[in-house]
């Protein structure tokens, strides 16, 4: 079985250098702009809040541990990131329906409305940034970026990379 080093030397080092450079540039630009949408909603919600609200919207109410596991972060980080969302009324803490002692986090109606505003703004940004791309180019880019993110996530968690490129882009 070839080692990681063997596989790297079989690939074009110049292409790998260009790829890692473009990923670094993308990360810097994404952080600078926070890919936060357009108009008044530009940069109006930080990445952590957006990802937490989006996960709760996509998967429904859940406990801190489940939310942390699904996002690949630890529970203390989720607790810290959720606190301001609860304080501003975007997330509600409720009792677990089967175990009243356990706390469940749920997207509030206000949180859903806010998330929809931010999503619309970010959709507009994606439309502007990819203006001139064909629908196939947008779909291919999304598929490859999803695959890339899945591979990074698997590497971080110590799992083998997923073969499935049909995975959700909501993480």
3D architecture notes:
There is one protein chain. The protein has 171 residues and is mainly α. It has helices at residues 4-10, 13-33, 47-59, 64-71, 75-87, 109-129, 135-157, and strands at residues 91-95, 103-107. A two-stranded antiparallel ribbon has the order 1-2. Strand 1 (91-95) and strand 2 (103-107) form a beta hairpin. Helix 3 (47-59) packs across helix 6. The longest helix has 23 residues, at 135-157. Mean pLDDT is 84; it is low at 164-171.
What does this entry show, briefly?
By secondary structure, the chain is mainly alpha-helical. Helix content is 62%, strand content 6%.
List keywords for this structure.
171 residues; mainly alpha; 2 strands; disordered C terminus
What's the layout of helices and strands?
Layout lengths: L3 H7 L2 H21 L13 H13 L4 H8 L3 H13 L3 E5 L7 E5 L1 H21 L5 H23 L14
Antiparallel strand pairs: 1-2
Helix pairs in contact: 3-6, 4-5
* Share of residues in strands: 5-15%
The DSSP helix count reads 7
Radius of gyration in whole Å, from Cα? 19 Å
Strand adjacency order, main sheet: 1-2
Give the ordered list of helices and strands.
Answer: HHHHHEEHH
The class by helix and strand makeup works out as mainly alpha
Can you give the helix content as a percent range? 55-70%
**Biggest sheet character:** 2 strands, antiparallel
Number of strands: 2
Look at the structure and give the mean pLDDT. Answer: 84
Low-confidence stretches: 164-171
Shape: globular
* Distance linking N and C termini: 32 Å
């Amino acid at each position: 079985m070839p080692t990681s080093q063997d596989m790297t030397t079989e690939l074009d080092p110049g292409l790998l250098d260009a790829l890692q450079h473009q990923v670094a540039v993308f990360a810097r630009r994404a952080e600078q702009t926070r890919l936060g949408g357009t108009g008044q909603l530009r940069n109006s919600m930080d990445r952590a809040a957006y990802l937490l609200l989006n996960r709760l919207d996509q998967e429904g109410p859940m406990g801190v541990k489940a939310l942390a596991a699904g996002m690949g972060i630890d529970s203390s980080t989720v607790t810290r990131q959720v606190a301001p969302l609860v304080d501003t009324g975007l997330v509600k803490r409720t009792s677990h329906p089967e175990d009243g002692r356990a706390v469940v986090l749920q997207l509030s109606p206000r949180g859903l409305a806010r998330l929809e505003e931010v999503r619309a703004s970010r959709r507009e940004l994606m439309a502007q940034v990819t203006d001139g791309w064909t629908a196939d180019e947008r779909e291919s880019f999304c598929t490859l970026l999803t695959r890339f993110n899945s591979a990074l996530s698997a590497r971080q968690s110590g799992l083998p990379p997923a073969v499935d490129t049909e995975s959700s882009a909501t993480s």
